[in-house]
Amino acid sequence: MDLIQEVLGIVSKRNPNEPEFLQAVTEVLESIAPAVQRRKDYRDAKILERIVEPERMIQFRVPWIDDAGQVQVNRGYRVQMNSAIGPYKGGLRFHPTVNASILKFLAFEQVFKNSLTTLPMGGGKGGADFDPKGKSDNEVMRFCQSFMTELFRHVGPNTDVPAGDIGVGGREIGYLFGQYKRLANEFTGVLTGKSLNWGGSLIRPQATGYGAVYFAEEMLKTRRENLEGRICTVSGSGNAAQYTVSKLNQVGAKVLTMSDSNGFIYDKDGITDEKLSWIMDLKNVRRRRIKEYADHFGATYMDGQRPWSVPCECAFPCATQNEISGADAKTLLDNGCYVVSEAANMPTAPAAVDLFLAAKVLYGPGKAANAGGVAVSGLEMSQNSMRLPWPRDEVDQRLRQIMTTIHKNASNTAAEYDQPGNLVIGANIAGFVKVADAMLDQGVV
Ligand code: NDP
Ligand code: 2IT
Predict the structure, then answer these.
(1) Which of 172, 342, 357, 429 lies at a 20 to 30 A Cα distance from 196?
(2) Number of folded domains in the chain?
């Protein structure tokens, strides 16, 4: 469709040197073309031209003092992409690779993901090129305080509600919240992923991983199968990966791998709950490298490699963008992998997505499969508004229900557009139509 290429041309011209943003926009726009074809009102209202442009983007200096007394300077951002269906909502990423391209791709994906959750949340993302690795707790605290000293004027419980992402977990959310409360002089649900005893929701730490497994179960149900006894590979060893492994163990699957940015471990006996607890302590408390698992448990460690060469039936990428290349996808398929559920955002490179779709494996794209994290963030917002926490079972039930609904919606939409089983098209169109209709209702803004 000419319009799609025309808009992609504008995006690439207006955002030079932003390959991740262009990749995310290209994937979404090309797959929603049939929906745009059907809707002259979308074309007349220039929905595509507007949806690719952030409503607002803030970039700011984050100065802080390290333990040696030296002044350090990082760059902070918040991308407020779309607020048609609710306040901006999305995580903060602290990682040395963070730049405008990465945050805009994440914010763009978030718009459609949040729409799929059925909850009233717009899309945003933020972060900084700060590397928490090797920093003391005090350094992380001073950084977070400085970051929030600027961010606080741009966020609020009805405006923009950040949460965690890579490099931002419970510790960072605590420091950020403390500084917000001090500056705004109010105790309010401005962040999600808070600790339980000061406004957090049960199941939020687990939600991304549990959700990605629930989504895989929904995909398998369409073939009257389940995860029991399935051989799985997982990448990453952070929040998303840990609770993916935990839920896979609960449903009787066997997980062979986990990784970090240095390499992966392969445990042929499976990463049991006991071994996973050890990893959680290693990663969340001692903050060390996954390699130590191999030394401790006598497993294999592959330096500088990703886990996709290990034969599996189900793959759960839980680390970062573009971590499954075309060559990795071919290896996975050759080895018999037929389920891919993305807990990470955009972990599969375009050439690999094409291979998965052509092979007609059960492929759950991130904006559907990892929506459980932000969905429970939405439930945390509801509980904060009511000032009433819900029990664990209630939140878990709602998470499961939301993942089932997302799968059904993506699956039905794919069928409606004559692409049964193609959850890329299904999720993108279903997420898009709700936001586009809201934009139409609200006029040219
Ligand atoms: P964490 O910081 O808790 O963990 C990130 C993990 O990924 C670590 O094991 C890290 O290794 C690894 N990793 C990060 N960058 C790279 C890289 N460039 N190459 C190889 N490995 C890397 O983050 P999360 O678990 O929260 O996030 C993981 C993914 O899940 C991200 O894509 C995120 O956007 C997505 N996600 C997270 C949600 C959440 O609620 N937290 C919700 C939805 C999606 P190392 O320690 O060596 O850096
Ligand atoms: O990518 C994501 O959906 C997240 N990092 C979680 C966002 C949130 O607001 O909970």
Answers:
(1) 342
(2) 2
CA-nearest residue for atom 10, ligand 2, is 374
Helices 100-116, 392-416: crossing angle, 10 deg rounding: 90
Cβ partners under 8 Å of residue 6, min gap 6: none
pLDDT at residue 1, as a whole number = 72
328-377 pLDDT per residue, tens: 999 999 999 999 999 999 999 999 999 999 999 999 999 999 999 999 99
pLDDT in tens, 141-167: 999 999 999 999 999 999 999 999 999
Ligand nearest the Cα of residue 377 is: 2
CATH of the domain at 163: 3.40.50.10860
The pTM of the full predicted model, rounded to 2 decimals, is: 0.98
What's the chain's length in residues? Answer: 445
Q: Is the CB of 107 under 6 A from ligand 1?
A: no
Task: Report the phi/psi class of residue 9: left, alpha or beta, with left for phi > 0 and alpha for psi in -120 to 50.
Answer: alpha
| Domain that residue 166 falls in | 54-186
One domain for residues 364 and 262: yes
| Pairwise CA distance, residues 26 & 67, whole Å | 44
269 and 135 part of one domain? no
Instruction: Say how far apart CA 335 and CA 50 lie, in whole Å.
Output: 43
